[in-house]
């Protein structure tokens, strides 16, 4: 079967060569190709190729050439016992040319081509033929040969041209999208906060602390309205003061009105792992973290916790504002600082002592002191509590104010028991 195909291929080639010699029109048979792949089951793989090119010149004479190539490589596998491992010949190329193809030498050319075909059909056992012979026949005029190449090159250039046009046209679009995204991101992360309204509300709820509230809100407002990416500021604010002066109330009201997308979090002792708080924080704006009810006797633990927390926040790019609230009446040097007579001066000295020890631990912070209340501050707090209970200001209300204030040591307790006392007075 294979021999018949090869003979047919040779006959077709010989017939075309014979028909070419009588044509005066210049033309070229680009290529006649016969290919065969021989693949042994184990061992060598070989492929041979026979190509025949025939063309005629303007004098009517035809010139034919053909060549045969063969190459092989080893699969480095063992053959079955009793079979000899054979290798094909090294790569070779045989060219035969006939300058003038006439009837006398056409048969000789055909015989040579047939010989090439026969030589390429040698079997090297064990072998398996995986592809039969094939013939490629193309007839192209000589004057169009180079034109065809130029056309192909032009088509390739046009394809590349359109590719480059598409790529170049996309560059401005990508740049515009990047600029738009950057502007959108800057706009979404930029938070402005005006604390004037909050300050007015705080002054009606927390009495005697106008200066402390103003300082605290100014720090927060200036920090929030800055660009964290440029300044990298994460302030630590230390709030000290005696009991019942409005430290926790002020912080809780600020947390309730803190601008989004920031997060507000109240943390009480024992302090949890820092990563639990960081996970709740936002990366698009400042977060307000309040550590309340801290004891001055555990300043070392508080400082270490805050240092690690700030490092975690900076690593995760989540800006935070940390507020630490200390009750200075719970202090290890009570006797030395006059615990029996907590005057405003001794209480303020306690607050300064806590702040100094905080700085000695290497943590940069801002200090805001909530001073002790006066008797008038206490009465204003009582009036606000009675008004919340539904009592209007009259002579009866002032009577309640005097009774309640007389039973409260405002220097030690502040306004802590005012609300419960006001509720009892109204119910009676």
UniProtKB/TrEMBL annotation:
InterPro entries assigned to the protein according to its UniProt record, in alphabetical order: P-loop_NTPase (IPR027417), Torsin (IPR010448)
Keywords from the UniProt entry: Membrane, Transmembrane, Transmembrane helix
SUPFAM superfamilies: P-loop containing nucleoside triphosphate hydrolases
Keyword match Hydrolase: no
Residue ranges crossing the lipid bilayer per the database entry: 164-184
MF terms in GO: ATP binding; ATP hydrolysis activity
Entry keyword Transmembrane: yes
Domain of life: Eukaryota
Cellular component GO terms held in the UniProt record: cytoplasm; endomembrane system
Alphabetical list of Gene3D superfamilies matching this protein: P-loop containing nucleotide triphosphate hydrolases
Protein family (similarity comment): Belongs to the ClpA/ClpB family. Torsin subfamily.
Protein name in UniProt: Uncharacterized protein LOC113210313
Organism: Frankliniella occidentalis (Western flower thrips)
